[in-house]
Amino acid sequence: MAKTILHKAATRGHAAHGWLDSHHSFSFAGYYNPDRMSFGALRVLNDDIVAGGRGFDTHPHDNMEIISIPLEGDLEHKDNLGNKIIIKQGDIQVMSTGTGVFHSEYNANPDRPAKFLQIWVFPNQLNVQPRYDQITPDLTQKNQLHQVLSPYPDDAGTWIYQAAWFNLGRFDKDFATTYHIQKPGNGVYAFVIKGRFDINGQELAARDGFGIWDTDSISLTALESDAEILLMDVPLKP
């Protein structure tokens, strides 16, 4: 029988720094919850709102796969790999930080906030050569899951150093589908971006997180029109 864990939106950690309003699904910075350290290889899932013109000054990362998904607005990214680029809503950004990366992330617009998901995944290889990638997948087709990340450079979407698959989808009310977990030993952490869903009988609202494992597949039904969801299929033992 499948095992599950439910993280309602209101139970997340919260940090308000004036220029940054951030909700943490897992322990991060000043938020520590020993029962919410990670979901397998999924270490960080932050739901960030950054004030106009503000952002994260240059800081280091190493040996972590970092994925950024803008939900509203634009982010300006700079790093010591020579990248200076704007990340827009609809883009997917990946950094394999490996032996070390210094980067900054700012709201590119002075007059409106930017909203994005900041996700960290433990890698399956340490001390790799750092790399940066950014894609703009075609997500216009409703009522299907779009793969935006996998372990394979030649597969749909971008890739990271981990046996992980991410899928994004936007659905009409009552549309139902089945997602098949990609690899034995993996589980799925679902994060509702917008609207409401039913996953295996569990109703989820916006910004709820739901982990499910010890199953081969999950059933997903949208309970509202234009409901959006992110599925993160990750190893339970990083």
UniProtKB/TrEMBL annotation:
State where Fe cation binds.
Answer: 59, 61, 103, 105
Instruction: State the InterPro entries in the record.
Output: Pirin (IPR012093), Pirin_N_dom (IPR003829), Quercetinase_C (IPR041602), RmlC-like_jellyroll (IPR014710), RmlC_Cupin_sf (IPR011051)
Q: Which CDD domains match?
A: cupin_Yhhw_N
Cofactor detail note: Binds 1 Fe cation per subunit.
The residue ranges of the Quercetin 2,3-dioxygenase C-terminal cupin domain are 148-234
Q: Which cofactor does it need?
A: Fe cation
**Keywords on this record?**
Iron, Metal-binding
The terms under GO molecular function for this entry are: metal ion binding
What's the short name of a Pfam family annotated to this entry?
Answer: Pirin_C_2
Pirin N-terminal domain boundaries? 13-121
Q: Which family does this protein fall into?
A: Belongs to the pirin family.
**Mind telling me what this protein is named?**
Pirin family protein
Q: Origin organism of this chain? A: Chitinophaga silvisoli
